[in-house]
């Protein structure tokens, strides 16, 4: 199981795509109707889709999986009775699978039979430009993050990796987290994190953003759980986006830490302590994009 992409709907997909290509470093992959698809240098056909709508919302966050994993998901989701719909993807990479709405409204899509593309080479360090490789995590705000962690363990066969005062980190493979639920008191998109090649690429990304007039809302820094380096920005079209690198790999029997295992010394909220955090700006941005289901659930999910 791998996190692949996020599908966002918003009024100005062309403007959002222009920022994400010209400044953030993604590459235009395809355009189908009013929907723009952007990719990284890795092998996924796209990482972000921007669809034109009047409002702004998260249509889905997409994971790719095997046929066996999809069959297991369908059986457990049907048994649990979560709203779900069988789908055939018309996005790049195609595939077939399932759209499912989690208890607080988070919408995930699981696709099997998807195709990949050749990686992009040639983002040389001599260039000021950087490019993300892929998504590394998509984090959601939750009214009850603890319940969401249990729900995705039970029904999706994900695993909680760590619990902190602020977050429940969840993995779907050996990466410490591919998603997480923030203890926010409301449900929405918290942030979208893009994997960079290495620490140097994160730092050069901060430089390229600075060249373009953007300062981090938080970072650079290094998190506790996952041990990844981060720099968070508020995208001009709304959501919080992150350059990140090297989320820790964990074994299948990794023992989930509790909030008391993840405390900081005074005046620290990361390992380095070198940057301020724009709490208010990030909070406002985190409230903008919420999941929105505009489809009817199937009465029964076809296997
Ligand atoms: Fe993150």
Automatic annotation (TrEMBL):
<feature type="domain" description="VOC">
    <location>
        <begin position="134"/>
        <end position="246"/>
    </location>
</feature>
<dbReference type="Pfam" id="PF00903">
    <property type="entry name" value="Glyoxalase"/>
</dbReference>
<dbReference type="InterPro" id="IPR004360">
    <property type="entry name" value="Glyas_Fos-R_dOase_dom"/>
</dbReference>
<protein>
    <submittedName>
        <fullName>Glyoxalase</fullName>
    </submittedName>
</protein>
<dbReference type="InterPro" id="IPR037523">
    <property type="entry name" value="VOC_core"/>
</dbReference>
<feature type="domain" description="VOC">
    <location>
        <begin position="2"/>
        <end position="113"/>
    </location>
</feature>
<dbReference type="InterPro" id="IPR029068">
    <property type="entry name" value="Glyas_Bleomycin-R_OHBP_Dase"/>
</dbReference>
């Amino acid at each position: 199981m791998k996190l692949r992409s996020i599908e966002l709907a918003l009024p100005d997909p062309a403007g959002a795509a222009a920022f994400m290509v010209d400044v953030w470093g993604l590459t235009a992959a395809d355009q189908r109707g009013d929907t723009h698809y952007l990719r990284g240098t890795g092998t996924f056909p796209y990482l972000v889709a921007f669809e034109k709508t009047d409002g702004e919302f998260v249509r889905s966050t997409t994971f790719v999986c095997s046929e066996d994993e999809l069959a297991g998901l369908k059986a457990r989701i049907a048994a649990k009775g979560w709203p779900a719909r069988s789908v055939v993807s018309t996005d790049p990479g195609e595939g077939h699978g399932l759209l499912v709405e989690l208890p607080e409204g988070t919408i995930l899509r699981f696709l099997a039979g998807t195709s990949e593309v050749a990686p992009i080479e040639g983002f040389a360090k001599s260039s000021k430009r950087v490019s993300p490789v892929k998504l590394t995590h998509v984090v959601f705000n939750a009214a009850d993050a603890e319940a969401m962690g249990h729900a995705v363990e039970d029904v999706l066969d994900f695993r909680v990796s760590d619990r902190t005062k602020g977050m429940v980190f969840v993995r779907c493979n050996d990466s410490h987290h591919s998603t997480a639920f923030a203890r926010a008191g409301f449900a929405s998109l918290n942030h979208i994190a893009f994997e960079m090649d290495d620490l140097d690429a994160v730092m050069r990304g901060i430089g390229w953003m600075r060249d373009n007039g953007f300062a981090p809302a938080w970072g650079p820094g290094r998190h506790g759980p996952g041990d990844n380096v981060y720099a968070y920005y508020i995208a001009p079209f709304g959501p919080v986006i992150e350059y990140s690198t090297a989320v820790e790999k964990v074994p299948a029997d990794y023992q989930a830490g509790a909030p008391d295992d993840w405390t900081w010394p005074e005046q620290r909220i990361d390992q380095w302590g070198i940057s301020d955090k724009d709490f208010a700006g990030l909070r406002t941005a985190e409230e903008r994009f919420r999941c929105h289901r505009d489809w009817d659930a199937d009465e029964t999910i076809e296997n």
